[in-house]
Amino acid sequence: MKPEPRTLPPSPNWYCARCSDAAPGGIFGFAARTSVFLVRVGPGAGASPGAPPFRVVGELVGHTERVSGFTFSHHPGQYNLCATSSDDGTVKIWDVETRAVVAEHSLHQHTISALHWSPTVKDLIVSGDEKGVVFCYWLNRNDSQHLFTEPRTIFCLTCSPHHEDLVAIGYKDGIVVIIDISKKGEVIHRLRGHDDEIHSIAWCPLSGEDCLSIHQEENSEPTIPNGKLITETPITKGCYLATGSKDQTIRIWSCSRGRGIMVLKLPFLKRRGGGVDPTVKERLWLTLHWPKNQPTQLVSSCFGGELLLWDLTQSWRRKYTLFSTSAEGQNHSRIVFNLCPLKTEDGKQLLLSTSMDRDVKCWDMATLECCWTLPSLGGFAYSLAFSPVDVGCLAIGVGDGMIRVWNTLSIKNNYDVKNFWQGVKSKVTALCWHPNKEGCLAFGTDDGKVGLYDTCSNKPPQISSTYHKKTVYRLAWGPPVPPMSLGGEGDRPSLTLYSCGGEGIVLQHNPWKLSGEAFDINKLVRDTNSIRYKLPVHTEISWKGDGKVMALGNEDGSIEIFQVPNLKLLCTIQQHHKLVNAIVWHHEHGSRPELSCLIASGSNNAAIYVHNLRTVLESNPESPVTITEPFRTLSGHTAKVTSLAWSPHHDGRLVSACYDGTAQVWDALREEPLFNFRGHRGRLLCVAWSPVDPECIYSGADDFCVYRWLTSMQDHSRPPQGKKCIELEKKRLSQPKPKLKKKKKPTLRLPAKQDSPVGNEEESTRGNAGPVENGVSDQDAEEEAQEPELPPSPVVSGEAVSCTAVSLGFEKSKVTVNSKATPLKKEPPKEKPEALLKKRKARSMLPLSTSLDHRSKEELHRDCLVLATATHAKELNEDVSADLEERFHLGLFTDRATLYRMMETEGKGHLESGHPELFHQLMLWKGDLKGVLQAAAERGELTDSLVAVAPVAGYSVWLWAVEAFAKQLCFQDQYVKAASYLLSIHKVYEAVELLKSNHFYREAIAVAKARLRPEDPVLKDLYLSWGSILERDGHYAIAAKCYLGATSAYDAAKVLARKGDAASLRTAAELASIAGESELAASLALRCAQELLLVKNWVGAQEALGLHESLQGQRLVFSLLELLCRHLEEKQPPEVRSPSSIYHPWATGSEGTLVQRVTSVWRSAFSVDTPEQCRAALQKLQDVKYPSATSNTPFRQLLLHVCHDLTLAMLSQQAASWEEAVPALLQAVLRSYTSGNFTLMQEIYSAFLPGGCDHLRDKLDDLSLATAAFKSLEAFFIYGQLYEVWWSLCGPGPESSIWVKNTVSAEQKEPDGSASDKDTEPGATAHPQSSQPPGPGLRLSGESERLLSACRELFSERHASLQTSQRTVAEVQETLAEMIRQHQKSQLCKATANGPSRDDTGREAEQAPSQPQSPREEGNTPVSLPELTRRLTEAKERIAEFPESVKAWPFPDVLECCLVLLHIGSQCPGAVNPEMQQQAQKLLQKYGHTRTYRRHCQTLST
């Protein structure tokens, strides 16, 4: 039985009083981001034997923002109902069985912070928000009640389990109130004692106050609720209430007395790794659970994630029991947010907890031990990697700054996950295991860090000293290249680590010495290959399995293949036109080793291309080859492809991850989609194939989930298109929106820093990583994902709310008191406009001195006496000096020193009043211009006018002032103005660099062009830098101008071609041609013509090909293709023809045969007439090779390839080179045959060989090498005619009179089904689609009988023997591959069974050969390995004995032709020569023993 699919879900939301709950019977739910994940717990979970009994079973999807509350209905009969609240302002009621919303309301106007389903009223849901508003909602009658008790921020609320009208509410400021909802929210008790946030409220499970035999504590306050004595009523009688607060205390309250009776202070527990600072209250969340069957005990959380079981009967001792004391490391490592009980179907009492450490833990209340742990993800799943050494170990790179290593083969624990966070500090975007060294894991992060983890130890990672400037895209292990490979064998590692970063650089790191410098491989690439143009920006790296070849993917869509040791460029694949995201080489351990040369690639385009590099790798060309045709194309995705993985269990099977929200499994060799997975709610980022289970695949996405899914369980086979695609996009867009969260009350968010979660206390590295932790990933959606990490908005806005309420009251009273005086205040403003018309008086330069001259008469007289004394005294005494200092304004009338003191005082006054310009003028009056400039520069107050007068102080002062002003302008973001000032002092290079570094490239180029020499390298660097930025932003035309300005026409043409449309490609080709880049111009012109071919613009395609002389041969191919398409279109009904085709005038004529028309057009339009011209064109076209066709090859591509072969044939024929003409014509026929297009094959014969193949026989010598090709061509001609005879018997059509003569009515001769479809499979072709035999009036015409006699050519015993041997080899290889898979599966079962007994192992081994999947013969006899080896050897020996003339060219299936001939003989007795029938039966009996024909031979013999 196959294991159930598994899910790694997102982390439960933080800082919510109740965002997880459990229903009786075993269903548990927790809020994670915008949804709720459901977990089945207990025997009904369906977990695998030996594993913990739980399983993630579903998700409630519907909210658009963070879910802040979740609660189940605990009433019998409706355990399937639950309620959720969200920051989107809604409360929804769900049915967990159908995952559908039953009802919802949007009554709250503010953020909802608390929610509870009443345990006594089956349809009552109570919710509270951050403004203190409480809503009671009755589900059955769709009614609600609004209550506003306190203008405070609600943190939590809990309905009483004993009285249906009582609700306890906890607030941010520590107040707890109990209200009666039946009396419009009347406060029954106001409980004061806590002085900080109330995190949790729990009612005693037993009614009454007899369960705790304790008295009120001495230190509790004997307060009287509301200042009044309340007579005891049934409502207030008998119940205890427990509250947990951020003030580190738990308080037990008596509802009958309305006061506290017990205070429990949390202990500071020392645990491994150091204790927690008692003063750090921000690290505490105190949640409570009061067990139903244990009323004298209370469970609470503690500082560092521990859980405590308090004994309430001995409160004076503060007695508690710590959970999980026996097992080390089973407790949570960080604060716990929620506790909820669950009773399973088998009666176990469990407790489930959620924590900041991202784990959900289940505890057995009988033993206080941890039963199991469900890990979760706090960020995007960026990367997946299976260890090649420790099989089944899956490493997951997550956006929360942690690496998970999941042992997927663990039997005892389905979620055996280890976390690694030390030294990471950022989102983990790339992972790669060492191929040989156990536990060695390389990781790359969003901030450019590369490191190595040893997952088998607890050591911190080694970090490379060389950082990337941007995100690390990919990591790969490969052989060292220079300069790292230059040392001796023992001085260098056998494998080095390569990293590709977002800035486009690939670095080589030495794993033995990560502290050393990493090397950029671009220098080696440039030196080895003598590259003169700009290297492309690298985005992907992949090493072939044997370590001899490396592939680099680039931003422009190209893929470059390099050969070790010096990274010689072998070839460039020009297929993608956008950034390459993924490149993977096919594995080398399959049944077909030649497939190891397949390389699959995906980019920001939706298409996936597979290329076969076998020819390039084996030929090792001297100069780089450019590949423009894919081996296979996989189409179906509708967005960019992010990850690819080949199946290690199959040949040619590939899985892809895509932004369209799905993962797709492909049969790459047949270009066929197989399975499509649509379980994610976001864009897929990574995918990995299980190394042990052929059906199991793991995928990760930006929905914070990693899914394990099976291919056989998928309902879809291809990615969604049309409406399905739109539905999937809506599902993905139901994730949280960033815009509302980021803009919501930004000023009130500031105090939340004290509550923002940070890492483990031992870890100073995570201190500032609070927002990074809870799930973030790319720049588009990551910011909104941080919201679950911050406390809910009540935490932040409560104080503001209460202050607002008070201030509103005062404002109202002020308005009332001053209302009478209001008219008096309205008069003066009427005069203001008149006053504004007067000129404003200039501010005085000496305001302090002026004010001192307007004092009283006595003071002015005193000034005169002091001044007279000072001017007439020969020596100033101390008293006069003191008076002068006090009366500084007298400096205007005394000496210069006193005047300077006065100016100093006045200047300070100007600065203090905010008028530095007046201070500067005073300093100028003093003549201290240099001091003015220095003071202004220090204060950042230099102005244009100050700098303008700076030359007065000297040349050096002016230079300094201009530089200082330029720096000041840079701080003020006035970079262009700063550059202008630098130019004024002739600092041209500094001005250009300033403009460049701040991205003013246009201005920088203008300055450099105007002021520097034309050959200055700075100018070229400016052009290249601006061009690369424009290219990255998609402004290709302007980027091309930059490259042209830098005299790099090659790069200009390349960047223009990146757009990929016909107009851009044509312009790029013309540009390359002008610049003399002939090879590039030819390739771009050909690409342009192919693009125009897709829209049937034949005229435009020929014009594009005419741009380059070397494409003359391609022009002939396209003209033949145009005439052939016109020829095929004329045979279609008028209503089916395409009106959009743009043909040449010479393509519209219909006189003569197709061959004559082609020859005429070549002669008239392209001047190809003489044999020499034909031979020249032939030589150019022979260098172009196309891959073989398959049944999935698009028809237009097939037509192009066929016309290429037909052009070769016609050119060879006109050049009288018949030995080349026959193979080319045969190649065209074979392409049509292998693609399954029988109609096209017959059209080729009717157009190019209307009279058959006899005239070709005369052109060839008997000893010619083309004789074998001619025999194959003739055989396929007879093969096609044979099928037409057979189909005319099954259903005579309007053109069947050539083959069949009818003697009955038309009604009798028409069969039920049409047999126009041709299937090329041998088994299928023997049974035409006809449901009734031909009537007795049918007989063959003379032409048919002559054809049947010519079928002797098809009955070639040599070819029959060769084909049988080839089929035997294929069947044996298939059987061997199946045996290897069965053996691997049996070994895996033994390895994962935790050491089964020898007897069991022996029994399994005995039973293994008898399994239905084992390879068998038809007689139910197992096939042994020696027998298969013998068959394979004999078959290969037989094949080797055949001459090359027989093996060189394909031949129609001889046995298939025998079957068709025998069917014709059975339908028209006497039409087939008995001798030929005997020969056909003899061949079938002799060679029909292979699996393909065995059934047909048995049918024939019976």
Question: What does it look like?
Answer:
By secondary structure, this protein is of the alpha+beta class. Helices cover 34% and strands 21% of the residues. The chain has a five-stranded mixed β-sheet, covered by helices on one side. Strands 1-57-56-55 form a four-stranded antiparallel β-sheet, with no helix packed on it. Strands 2-3-4-5 form a four-stranded antiparallel β-sheet, with no helix packed on it. Helix 33 crosses helix 36 (1342-1350) and helix 33 (1267-1290) packs parallel to helix 41. It is globular and about 145 Å long. Mean pLDDT is 82; it is low at 216-236, 272-281, 739-837, 1294-1298, 1300-1337 and 1396-1414.
Strand order of the largest sheet: 42-43-44-45-49
Shape: globular
Helical residues, percent: 25-40%
Average pLDDT, all residues:
82
Helix/strand/pairing class, anyone? alpha+beta
| Count of discrete alpha- or pi-helical segments spanning 4 or more residues | 43
Describe the secondary-structure layout.
Layout: E1 6-8, E2 20-23, E3 27-32, E4 35-41, E5 54-61, E6 67-72, E7 81-86, E8 91-95, E9 100-105, E10 112-117, E11 124-129, E12 133-138, E13 143-148, E14 154-159, E15 166-171, E16 176-180, E17 186-191, E18 198-203, E19 240-245, E20 249-254, E21 259-265, E22 288-289, E23 297-301, E24 307-311, E25 320-322, E26 336-343, E27 349-355, E28 359-364, E29 369-375, E30 381-386, E31 393-398, E32 403-407, E33 417-420, E34 428-433, E35 440-445, E36 450-454, E37 462-463, E38 472-478, E39 496-501, E40 506-509, E41 519-520, H1 522-529, E42 538-543, E43 549-554, E44 558-563, E45 568-574, E46 580-585, E47 598-603, E48 608-612, H2 614-619, E49 625-627, E50 632-634, E51 641-646, E52 653-658, E53 663-667, E54 672-677, E55 684-689, E56 696-701, E57 706-710, H3 723-733, H4 738-743, H5 770-773, H6 782-785, H7 793-817, H8 828-837, H9 847-852, H10 857-872, H11 878-886, H12 896-912, H13 916-926, H14 929-939, H15 944-949, H16 955-971, H17 975-984, H18 988-997, H19 1001-1011, H20 1017-1032, H21 1036-1045, H22 1049-1057, H23 1062-1074, ...
Parallel strand pairs: 45-49
Antiparallel strand pairs: 1-57, 2-3, 3-4, 4-5, 6-7, 7-8, 8-9, 10-11, 11-12, 12-13, 14-15, 15-16, 16-17, 18-19, 19-20, 20-21, 22-23, 23-24, 24-25, 26-27, 27-28, 28-29, 30-31, 31-32, 32-33, 34-35, 35-36, 36-37, 38-39, 39-40, 40-41, 42-43, 43-44, 44-45, 46-47, 47-48, 48-50, 51-52, 52-53, 53-54, ...
